[in-house]
Specification:
CATH topology of the largest domain: endopeptidase fold (from Nostoc punctiforme)
Oligomer: single chain
Number of helices: 4
Largest sheet: 6 strands, antiparallel
């Protein structure tokens, strides 16, 4: 019995497989050499775009952190806006004391305060002295219609022509009901009458005028 010999591939077949494997290896190596820089470049572009997109948000966030008086946020439309930061809170409302009724003062002034309050508007019409004059005339506190046109002249005319006196009061909230308060400076002026719970002229308010107080006037009975 003769043993079978292992089959040996022909020499030409081995050479052909070696050449084919070499070509495949070289082609993969060339492809890797070509695409590796492209992949690195694409990764670089992606990272740069991410950094640019986050840069404005980081800048705005940094700006908002530096500000100690403003809070920055985006409104529903995406617009960057800010609001003041409130660091103090007063739970109780600021309530001014009610004005007192001085029995020595002419009661017609209290009537004038009521008339002015009924005729006053919700907002100023820049006719404060006119409304006060009409209320004084309607209540009989003055016998004729005052002639001065400017609020800064109201105090002088009330004293010289209608018997009013200047009261030793420097706080508007301490003025009695019916007293006439004159405010002003070199450029502007205002006149109003003290009511029980506020002030009235061509408009009514619970707060005194923010102009500097010149004087408080009243007429005694």
């Amino acid at each position: 019995m003769v043993a079978s010999l292992p089959k040996v591939a022909p020499r030409g077949h081995k050479i052909h497989n070696f050449v084919r494997d070499s070509q495949n290896h070289l082609s993969r190596w060339h492809i890797a050499c070509i695409y590796a820089p492209m992949r690195r470049f694409a990764l670089f572009i992606f990272l740069c775009s991410c950094g640019i997109s986050f840069l404005p948000a980081m800048t705005e966030a940094g700006g908002s952190q530096k500000s100690s008086s403003r809070f920055y946020y985006n409104d529903p439309t995406g617009r960057r806006v800010s609001a003041p930061i409130v660091r103090h809170y007063w739970p109780a409302r600021i309530v001014h004391p009610l004005a007192k009724v001085d029995p020595k003062i002419d009661s017609k002034l209290r009537c004038a305060a009521s008339i002015a309050q009924e005729r006053a508007c919700a907002h100023s019409k820049a006719r404060c002295w006119r409304y006060v004059k009409e209320a004084l005339v309607a209540a009989g506190a003055v016998k004729s219609y005052p002639k001065t046109a400017y609020a800064a002249e109201a105090g002088g005319e009330l004293v010289h022509s209608y018997g009013f006196r200047r009261l030793p009061i420097h706080d508007p909230y301490s003025a009695p009901v019916g007293a006439v308060l004159v405010y002003g400076n070199k450029r502007r002026g205002h006149v109003e009458i003290r009511t029980r719970d506020g002030f009235v002229s061509d408009y009514r308010s619970r707060n005194a005028c923010f102009y500097p107080l010149v004087a408080v006037y009243a007429k005694f009975s």
